[in-house]
Every structure is written in C-alpha cells, then in structure tokens.
## 1
Amino acid sequence: MEAAEILEKEGSSSPRYLWRKAVLKAEIKYGKYLNKIQDNTESGYSELIEALKKNHDYKCEAMYISIDDSTRIQKLARYSGDDKPVDLSDPTKDNIRAIVDDFQEIINIPLKIHFGSVIPDNVYMFPCKKAVSEIASAYKRTLKDFQFWKDESNGFIDMGGIMAKDNDTYKSGYNILGDPATHIKESLYHEIGHLVEASIPGATKISQALLKDRETESLLSSSVGDVAKTNFGNSLKGKTIAEDHFFHPYMGVQYTKNNITTVTELVSSGFEGLSSPWMARSMAIRDRESLLYAIAVSEMN
Amino acid sequence: MGLIELYFSSNLMATIKLSVTTKSERKDIGVDVEEKYESIFNVFKEQFLKTNGLYFTPLAGGIGSWDELIYVLDQCCDDFSPVSYKIIEAPTLQGKSSIPDGGIN
C-alpha cells in the first residue's frame, strides 16, 4: 500500500505511514550516496557518512562498569565458567572512544553508554535509565541496584564476546567470520543501534510496523516462525520474528520484556550496515530499504 | 556446468574442504581448521570473493553466516543451484554461553 493511501486511511501518526515517510525522506536525501556505494564508487561511503553528520555538539559519554557490577552480571546470567570479568585496556578504551565519537556524530540524540567485558563468547546490551520511560520501566526491577543503572545512561554493552582474555586480541567474538580489523566497530555499531532505538520515543513502534508490513506483504511470509526454527533453533525461543527479503532473517527479530516490545534487530543491523564500506555496499544491494530505515532513525530524536 | 561443494566434516574441528568451480575457473581450497572457522573464510575471501568483487560480511551475531555464504555463492556463479552444493554439517552458534535475562543481542 502506498504511503499516501495509508496517510488518508490511518492518519499522519500511523506507524505504518511514518516508516514509509521516513524511508522516502532518507532516500531523497541520501539515496545518491547509496547509489555510489552500490556502484562501488570509492568515495561513496565516506560521502554518505559525511552527509549523515548532524548539526550538534553532543559528545558521547563512554563509561566503564565496576567489578562489583560485573560480578553481579555474572550471577544474573548464572554464568558458570571460569572467566573473570576483564578490565578493558587503555588501547581498547581508545578504540571504543573513536567508535562512539563517530557514531555520535551521525545521530540526533546525546549518548551515554556503559561498557564492560563480563560474559565471554557473547555480546549483548541492556537498555537503561535513559531509554524511553516504558522500556526503562521494563528493566528497572532487574537493574535498579546496578551502579550503571544509577548513573543514568542509555544502556550497558557487554563486549565479553569480542575481547580475548588478554584484553586486546580479537577472539572469535560474536561476528565469528568477520574481519578482525573492523570487528569491534561492527559489533558496537550493532549494539549502540539498539540503544538508539530504545532511546527515541516511538522508534520501536515504527520499526514494528515496518516489520509487520514486510511480513504481511512479502510473498515469502508463509508462516512466521519458520525462519526462526530453521535458522536459529532454540536461540530465539520466545521471541517473534518477521519473515521477508531482509538482508538477513535475523533482522526480523523483536525483543520483549514484561510484555513490552523493547527493540528490534532491524535498526541495530541497519546501523551495523553503516559501520564499514563493505557492509554498507552489501546491504545497499540486498536490502536498501532497511539501510534507509536505519538512516531515517539516525535523523530522529 | 558449475559446481559448488561445501564439505564440512562431522567434526567441525577437523578439515574443512571447499571446492568452488565457476564457468571460467576452478578453485579447490583445503583448510585445516583447528581453532577458528575464520581461516576458511579469510582464504575464501582473499582467493575468490575479492576476485569477483563481492563482499561477504555476516551480521554481528554470526547466526546464519553460512546462509550468507550460500547467497554470495549464488551471486558469484551463474550455474549455482540447490543441487550443486552440499553441507554435511554447518557451524552454528546455538548453545552459546549464558546471557542475563533481558539481554539483547
């Protein structure tokens, strides 16, 4: 259904209309850069990133969780391994600093993020107090006694699966086949993408509408859940997934907490697509709409 | 006719052999994967994908990486069809280590 038709039938506040409008605006503003990227023009990616930079002076606050909080997280995860939480080294922190600075430049909300390396072989995030109130409320009971919750950040990112025991070496991480040189950036863009979606009022609802529409309108959507069953087994048990021609079926995943849909994999994966020229090119070729949607979210506040 | 065969042994820590044939050339890559799967990926990327000007970068999460590989192969090879490859056993990230309840990957 066309955007104009939805506008007429459902009004200008309809999430189904809003995602279409956002994607169209992104296409008009940034489509020329995606064309260059898609055509493998050398400067395409750098031109896109330059164009995405926003007119603000926000400086992302990157903070690091305490050993006490790390120990609590291991208990929360019922972690039974021998690995102790890792203090991130200064070079790693410098790397994180550079990545979050780059990320902050292309989005319209100020970020405050806690990082840590706690659970090995896994990378994940928690939305925290600066998430939209409904999402923050869903996590309050679980996280209210953690210092990183009291510090009022957008969220916590556990980089344990990225870091090796010696703190600096690329391990197998989460993106197991990724390029080590850009591995941390890809993973952090993905996780920070979750934080952004959780921190922008209405963003998750608009994302849900996009997922639902693509699920409904796709000729491939025979039955929701088959993709999850085939590709992910039990790893996504309890989560919902929309099927369509996504860059990757993982992008159809939505998370719930206390019966509230908190975030999707649509925005996080889209931002990951913006983390490097080759990711941007792959996604621009295969799923331009999702990449445009992440760009559209970068314009929201 | 093009042929693509991906053989993964039942023990993923043992040898993985990748044989790729396109219309114009044939490449046989045998990799002894003792510790990490990325070695096969790096060889594949260097020797085949770059030649074809294509990119293969799985999303964070890595889940479905091998589906992605199949997609790229599909793009590379005109004669690719479901009968032209075989995966005996594909790596999977299922059964990963613990994650706190409510954590979002």
## 2
Amino acid sequence: MKTWHWVLLGILAALSLIVELAVLYGHGHHWWSVIPGFYILWGFLGSLVLAYTSKWFGHTFLSRDKDYYEP
Amino acid sequence: MSLESPLLPALIMIFGTILIGLLPSLLRSFTFILLPLISLACLWSQPSVSNLSLVFGTIFTLVASLGGVYAWHLNDRLQQMAALLYAGAAVGVVLVKDFYSLFIFWELMAIGSTYLIWARKTPESAQTGMRYLLNHIFGGGLLFAGILLHVHQTGSTALQALPDNFDLSSLLILAGVALNTAIPPLHAWLPDAYPKATLTGSVFMSAFTTKSAVYVLMILFPGWDMLVGLGVLMTLYGVAYAILANDIRSILSYHIISQVGYMVTGVGIGTQLALNGAAAHAFCHILYKSLLFMGAGTIIHATGKSKLTELGGLASSLRLPLFLYMIGAVSISGFPLFNGFTSKSLIIASAGEAHYEWTLLLLLLASTGTFLSVGLKLPIFTWLGTAKTPHTVKTLPQGMLVAMSITSLLCFLFGVYPSLLYRFLPYPVTYQPYTVYHLVETTQILLFTFLGFWLLRKKLVGEDSLVLDVDWFYRKSGKYFKYVFVDFTAFIFSQVALTVHKITDASILYFNRKDNNTSASIYTVSAGTLLLLALLGLAFFK
Amino acid sequence: MIESAVPLLALVASLAAVPLILLSGTKPNLREFWTLLAALIKFCLVLTLLPNALQGTTTQITLLELFPGIPFILKADPLGVYFALIASGLWILTSFYSIGYMRGAHEKNQTRYFASFALCLSSTLGIAFAGNLVTFIVFFEMLTLATYPLVIHKETPAALAASRQYLVYTLTAGVCLIAASVITQVTTGSTAFVPGGIYTPLSLPDPALLLVFVLFLVGIGVKSGIMPLHSWLPSAMAAPTPVSALLHAVAVVKSGVFGLVRVVGFIFGSETLAQSHLNILLMILAGFTVLTASLLAFKQENLKKRLAYSTVGHLSYIVLGASLLSPLGFTGSILHISAHATMKITLFFCAGAIYVNLHKENIPDLNGIAKVMPFTMAAFTLAALGLAGVPPLNGFVSKWTLAQGALQADMLVPLFILVISGLLNIGYFFPIIHRAYFKEGEHLEGKKEASAFMVVPLVITALLSVLLGIFPNHFFHFYDLATAIAKTLIPGN
C-alpha cells in the first residue's frame, strides 16, 4: 500500500461523507440515519468485531490438530 | 412419471449424459458445452414457464455450459457424465410442478454430485464423499417422509406454498430442503465436501445443490418468519468460519453458506421485493461464486496447493487468474458496477422496507465479513506477498481462463445493466440500485472494512489447524454408534447362531445313533410332532 | 373362474425337462437347450394367464381330491400369476447366466445342477398356483428338497453344513406349517386361499388365534427370512451364485413371503388380524428384521453374505407391507416382490460374474474392478441405488407405495423404518461401489469383462429395474395387478 493509495481512499471517504451530509441528510428512514458516517463506523467496527470474535471463538473452542479425525 | 414437455430442458441434459458417455474426448467436451445451451434455448421457447423457473433455469444452464468450458481439458468420461446428470437434475428441480417429480430430481442431484467428490481420488475425498452421500440421502429421507405425510393429509402432490402452522409434514419437508440449502446445523456437509471435490466439480457443486434448494424454499416457504432468523444466522456463521479457514476452497465454501443466508432471509421476509431479491441474488451469486471457485481451481491446478499457509507469491506467474478472480471478489463484496451491488441489495432493502432493522444491519455486517475474507484475505495471502512454500507453477488449460473471462463479463454485464435481470424476476421491480444512498452506503462500508483489514492483517493470516464444525457430532460419535449398533448386534447374532448350531448338530447326532439315515429320522420326528400338534389342536379347540 | 390345464402345463414344463436333462448329461449343449426351452415354454404359458389375471379371473384346475373337501388344486389367481411371471421370467435369464457361470467356473455335476433347477422351478410354480394350504405345503416342501442338491452342490464342508442347517430349519418349519393347516382345516372347514381370508374374527378365541398365527409365522417365516429364523440364508451362500441368485433372492425366499401374503390376506384376512392386533406382532418382527439385517450387513466382508443380509432386510419390507393391512400397504408389498427380485438378482449376478471372472469374493479385494468390468459394476450400482429406494428405479416405486401404505394405516413408525433402511442400504452398498470405481486395483492386468452369458442377463435385469421404475406398468402391468390384488384383500372393497 503506497501513500498515494491511502490518499485516494481518503479522498473517496471524504467525498462519501460530504455527499451524505449534503444530499442525504434528513432523508433517512432508519434510526441510524441521523448519525453521519454511520456506515463508516459499522464497516470499520464491524470488521474488527468480526475478526476478533471469530478468531477468539475459534481459538478457544474449535481449533484442533490437523489429524484430529484420524483414528 | 409422465414425460411432460415443460421438463424437456432438464431431460435434454439428463439423457445427454448417455450421449456424452459414448463420445470420444474432444467431442465429449464440446457436446458438454453445447447441451446446456440447447436446454436453455428449449427453456425459453416453452410457453408456460414461470418467471422464477426461467431465472433459475437460465442461470443453471448457463453455468453448466461455462463449467463445461472450464473443464474442456478434462478427459474423465464418468465424471463428465456425472456433472451433466447433476446439472440436468438441478434444472429439473426448478421446472417441476409436483412433489413426486421433485423428489426424483432431488435424489438424482445427490447421486451425480457425490461422484464429483469421489472422482478426486484422494483418501479424504473417499471418506468425505461417503459422508456427503449419507447426508444427502438422509436429507432426502426427511423430504420423503414429509412429502408422503403431506400428500396423505392433503391428497395433492402439487407444489405450492405451505401454510406456516408447523405441521409435522411441513417441518420434515423444511428439514429436508434445509439440508440442501445448508442451513445450520444441517450444513456441515458443504464445507466438508466442496474443498475436497475435483477442481472442475466444485464449480458445479457451488451452483446447483444450494440454489435449487433455495428455489424450492421460495416456492414452499415464502414468508416463514423463522427463515429470517435462520438466514441472518447463516450469513454470520459462514463469515465467521471463513475467517478461521485456511484452505481457499473452505473459505469459499463457508461463503456459500453466508450468501445463501441472504437468500434464506429474503424468503423469510416474503415480500415481493424480498423474493425478487432472493431470486436475483441466486442468479448473481451463481455467476460470481463459480468464478471464485474457478479462480481457486486455477491456483490448485497450477501449484497443487490450496492452503493460505502454503501459498503466496503468485502475482507474477498467475496474473490473469488474479485479475479475473478479483472481478468475482468485488462482485461478491457488492462493489458498484458489478452484479453483487445490484442483487444483494434488494434483499437488504427489503429488510429495511419490512422494518426488520436489525436484520438489515446484520446482513450488512456479514457483507463486511465477505469482503474481508473473499475480497481481501484470500487473494492477498494467495497471490501477493512472498511465497510461503516454493512453487512450481504449471500452465493452465486455456478453457479455465476462457470460462473465467466469460463469467467475469457476465458479472460486469449484470452490474451495469441490472434491468436485464430485473425484468424477469417473479414480481415487478421498482428498485433502483444506483442511488446516491446506496453508493454512499457501499463506499463507506467497503472503504472502512478495508481499513479494518489492513490494521488486522497480521492477525488474519491463515492457520493450519482444523476448525470443528457441527459434523464433529457425527464424525466423532460414528465410531461409538458402530460399536453399539453394528458390532454388538453382530456379536449377539453370532452367539445365537453358534448356540443354534450346537443344538441342531447335537440333535442330528442323537438321531443318527439310532438310524443311519438323517433325513429319515428327521421325517419320523416331524411326523410324530405333527401328529402330536394336530391332536393337541383338536383337543384345544373342540 | 375358468377351468384350464394351462397352470398344470406351466408347472409340468420344467418337470418334463428333468428326465431330458438327466439323459443329456454327456451333451452339454443339448442339455442346456432343454433348460432354455422349458424356461421359454413355461414363461409363455404363464404369460397366457396374464390377461385373465388382469381382469381378476382365476384360471384353475383340480388335480385330485385328497380327502372329501380337500382338493389338490391349482388356481392361477392374480397373485399367483404375478409370482409365477417373476419366477419363470427370471429363470430364463438365470439359465443363460448359469451356462456362463458353470462353464466359466468349470463346475462339476452340472447335470445334477440343471435338473434340480428345473425341479425347483416346477415347485415354485406349484407354490404360486396352489389353491389351498394343502397344495401349497406339498410344493413348499418339494421346493426344499429340490433345492438341497443345489445348496450342497460344491460338496465343500461349508456347503454340507449349510445344507444341513437349511434342511433342519425348513423341515421344522414345514412341521409347524402342517400343524397350523390342520388346525385351520378343523376350525374353518377349509384350507382354501380366499381373498379376505377364511377365518372370521369369531373363528377362534384370541389366545388360540395367536397360537395358530405363530405356527404359521414359523412355518412361513423361515423361508421369509424373518428374524430370528433367518440365519440359514447367509449360510446358504455356499451354493453357486446362480442358485443364490434365483432361488435365494427370487424363488425360495419369495415363496416364503408369497406364502406370508397368502396367509395374511387369504387365510386370516385383514379383518381377523386387525381385530386381534396380530398384524402388530408381524409389524414388529418385520421392522426389527429390516433394521437388524441391515446392521448385520455392515459386518460382512464376503460379498454374497452381505447381499444375503440385504435380502433378509428387504424380504421384511414385503412382510411389513402386508402387516399394515392397508390397500397401498398390500400393493407396495406385492410390488416389492418383483422390484426386489429384479434388483437383487442383478446384484447376485454381478457377484457371480466377479467370482468367475476375477476369482474375488470378498469386498476388500474388489478395488478397481469397475475399470475391468464396467457393465457389471454399472448394473451393480443401479441395483444398489434401487434397493436404497433412489428413483428412478422400481425399488423407489415400491418403497414410496409401502410408505403410503403405512400412512394409510395411520402409522408413522414403518415410514421412518423405511427411511432409515434406505440410509443403511446406501451405507453398506456404496463402500463396495466406491472401491470398485475409485480405488486402484491389483492383479487386474489383461482382465476383461465377464462372459456375455453372464453380463447380458445382468444388464437386462438392471435395465428392467430402471424401466419398471419409470413405467411401473410396462410389459406386465405389475402395478395394476398389485393394486387389484390389494383391493380384494381389504374388507369393504
């Protein structure tokens, strides 16, 4: 990931926020529509929560040796 | 069973199985590609096919043909026959109008697809295939029982929506269909079997079993509330396990469960928009999922490896497959301009419309996970970075790349021109995917999922361990069931047989002491006993 | 009711062949010609009885009056014609198969073999056309004695032990059968097979009825393989495979279950059995047999022994169907008589072909044989699928009908037993199929498919199973016949 990649993504993110605030504000149907950038939070936190929870659950309960089922 | 013309597309492919069995290699591969296209033409010329059957039938025949292109290099007569039988039976499932015919094609699918697993000829595939077959015959048995009860109670074999009063017959049918749909806890056969099937076989398998079951689910159980919860559970379950998986086809297999979860949710919500969404998503999912499996197949074919912990460093040698895989990856992740953006969102929108708000949020969460595993983790750890083990890269058969290219084009086509699909959905479509709202929502989720991935990238590497799933229950306990039911029973009976033998031998020996002729003494005894019994009888009853 | 000598002629056709076969001992081709000719004539004669049977008419001929009121009589009623068709039709195929097998394996005593076979088929037709219990018993015992030389054919210790066990079981059963018939004659004044039964619910007090029923069960149950009277069947696999095929998968054991349908439907009758709940006893025994036999099959390493236990299980499908006392239960039961016959005979034919061609009889040795014997294994796979109840084979049609019969009788348990049995069938057949197709074989270089004499019959029976699965009424109107017979057995129809 080069710096200019991050710059591009940053611009996209900013754009999406601007468009959201400018065009969509007040038109939302859901309880979270009043939170600007909600999907930013949901995507970011969601990915973290999913990754951590799955890995934790897997390591604690479900992980076994490759040959677990061999007699 | 009577031969009705609406089933003709399916029968063309099923009887075509015999035809390709008789042909030599090149002609066989060619005919394999041609026959589903003939079925497709036949399907579109049928007068009274429902829109839903048309949508499913179209994508099934298309992907069968594309799979044939992918498998052009294959010269395994029985495997090619099995694949065509499987595909044809799936087409049959989406065209039938009654339970009896449904069951016939349902079982045929199980038979054909089992072969595709065993054809891999590894020790794991031998056992997996047997488990797969037993799972599906078990599911078929549930379906069988449910159908018979239903027919007995209603007197009709017609396929129509079942009232959600949780009758035993409906529940049994649901269980049978749920197994093929891979709804947990009846799903474990899928991640067990698909990674171990042949490379060409798993392309077919990713398309037919689960999606034909979704079709049946849509016909029989629309609006069943429990499916909403089950569907959401599926989407997250698949995503979670995919994060834990190491084998590239395991990741994709768990994602099948996740994506089918969207369809199940749509069926559960049951509104016109939701059902449209389920159908549209099934259509698009088949396209990008087969593309993804095709991509995984190229990796395995080229390197002989399928685990993230052994791959990496293939970007330069397998550039085109990477590019084409990424088209499938961005499609499944719902990027604008590709068909995931125009199909998955119908279901998500329907959840919102029907005020299933948490459902909506959780479905979006699952999308996050999808992009994480399929769009980022899999390609990055497979192609990019340094090779974790040394590779000797074999050249890929041309058919694989051609098939992937065509499929990619189709993913793009339905992404930029969604009304091509929308006009054939069961209900009229007013939904517009390219709205500001949708674009903003998608951009934000995808961008920041990427950020999340980037921060956690060290944590998300593959781990070469086994992850237990619900099949633990029958795989671990199988041994004990065998002891109790098979070994113990056999022991009892052998003891009984031994005792009986001793008695009969002793009695024959006894009679032989008096007589030289065994048979004669047996007859004497018999006659005596007979007389005695007859006298007894007369005495008893007179 | 039509008087005609055709049933007798059909029976005699193979009887007449016996001396001819014995006299042609030194000229094998002539000897085999007599067998084939007799088989063809027999089958054609039975075929002429079919139109009448389809209309529900019985063709009969009284041979003797043994005692006043107890005739020795042949009645070709619909059920009898059904069974006779299967037995005589499959005998033609088995005869061709026998030629390939006996010559391929260079078996000794072929004359004795073919002569005994012809005698067995006469007995079988006698059983099929028996008009009353007395006639039935005569031919039933004749069958036992006629099969003895066939079971003991190889004269190995295993064969001797098996035939001794076979005789003891079947002759003891015969005694019980005679006793039960005597009681029936005394109680009801008749031993004739009448649709709906000759017993009435008032004929006997319940305990006495139970005793007679048990006597009949033992008498018929040995040949029907009802547990625990079944163990002669796996032992009898010591016989040459064509014997196992026709007799133990089709004629002897089918005589048993045929007799059971006669006893249930034509002697006791649905009303009497339902009244005294004796059909529940039968159902329990049958259900137990279906499941246990399948579980025991898993343990068998010898292919024919595994097939034998499979047969035991499937015979109880027929018993189970009859015990339901519902129209579709009887229909399914009767249908399974023919369905199991075609499928099981295919499997035995395959086993014999594998033995003669590759000298393999144990399952672990069957790796990779599908490459060498593709037609045989394809037929094996089809038949195995059918026995598991997978469409579009005739085993599916009978299983579906049996399940419907269970629901008609308001019972769920038989339905689930059938479903579980299907699963078990897959469990014990498919490892064989997997080995044959997907494992590497050893010592198979230069081997080809077995002789056409063996392969053609097994392909025919396999294709027949598929054809009758898609068109159950094709050729012989089996489905219509079974339905018609079932209707006559339910009171009020």
